[in-house]
Amino acid sequence: MHRAKYFVAITAASMIVAFTAAGCKKTPIDPFPSSGAIAGWQKTSDTRVFAAKNLWQYIDGDADRYIKAGVVSAATSDYKYQDRFDATVDVYQMSDPAGAREILDADRSKEAASVQLADGGIVYEQSVAFRKGAYFVRVVAYQQAPGMQQALLELAHGVETKLPVS
Amino acid sequence: MKSRREFLKQTAAGAMIFGSSAAADKLRLVAMPSERKEAAASKVVVARDPSLQSAQMSETRVLDLLDRAVVAYTGQERPLDAWKHIAAQRGSADGTIGLKTNGLGGRGISTHAVLIHAVSERLQQAGVKPGNIIVWDRNARDLNACGLTISTDPNGVRCFGSDVIGFEDHTETWASARVRFSKILTRECAMVINLPILKDHSMAGLTFAMKNMYGVVESPWELHANGCNPGVADLNAMPAVRQKVRYTIGDALSSVYHGGPGFHPQYLWHPNAIVVGEDCVAIDTVAWQMLERKRSEAGLPSLAAEGRAPHYIGTAADAAHDLGTNDLKRIHLMEI
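YS: structure for the whole thing
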């Protein structure tokens, strides 16, 4: 990609969150809690948005299974918890709830614990994933730290409340 | 990180232990028949340090592990000589060495900064000017994911992505692949040292030495069909890659054995290893074995059973591509 084209894409992505509410395509959705909205969490990056056709720029070969499951777009932001650890929130808008379920099921391994979050969620030591309607959300931390799982769940819940009910 | 003085002092001591060069030559003569036998094989060194497994990886230990790996690989007796041997492969003394990292998986699973800095430091101690080293990847985001800071200062080690310098206008073709190369590869680098990170890959099965070259072209997505086969092999067969990418110093300090190429911490694994070689096919063959062993230990099916065996490795070894060997009998694996 040419430099100018790249910067246009990133700038546009950082200025708007191109998600739309299911059934109301002109309503913009910003699923990312702002700094301080969830106790202890600071948003540390601009939101980047990728259309399905450009998803490979973000997740390379992993894009294939999202595309097969009907991804429409993905948005991502970075967070920090009390200067103790970093995390990334990825929100995937799928074309229908079945797509979100498919991705969540693929994320589930025998170590996963189920968690009551929206239409279903799973939690690991360093990550939380859930689905709500046609949205699939993953929150991942990069270092291990005491109390991490609870903090991740609180951030995930903050995202969940900002997503529309399908 | 070990200082230049400490490094040089240690290597000088190493020379004294091994004795005079004449004595070393005699030893070499004695060893010649077996060396000749080994010359037909592709050497791959897997150097491990189990004590590395921690969030704060020790710089000193990574440097020591790296030195052990390159000494074993090059057959040189002293680390400094090993690094001089590697640096000399770039041709001219002013040639730039590119260190191609991999930060695509994000902060959790990218080439470790501690390894990148270690390679850069050793190259400088071997006489490569800081301005003749470029650490690079697709873009700033990938480099930041490795924990690196962007710098285009020509007096220091440079670190920037193809987003800064752009891609060639000309499209190169090799069999099915049509690509436009990063100008960092084509115009800046006399030689590239490949610094990939070992990962499971949902489409290709495995990503390590050869797959990391997807980060040197403008539209890697176009090479992903059919499990990246023959895309990976075709790309690596292109002269720009084949001629310039001389060494792989593969990061297997940590890895993901499933769910890759993205970071899924539940599948994080610490092989605590550095993999060194020149035969990219042999390296990927060894890496595939490592990954399969871990998957088996974790009770997961093999990549083949999941329908995503990395067939591109075999393609890269075929007569048309001739990039190296995937025949285990022809791979001289040194595990240290």
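YS: worth flagging: Chain B has 13 helices and 13 strands.
IM: good catch. Also The CA atoms of residues 198 and 208 of chain B lie 5 Å apart.
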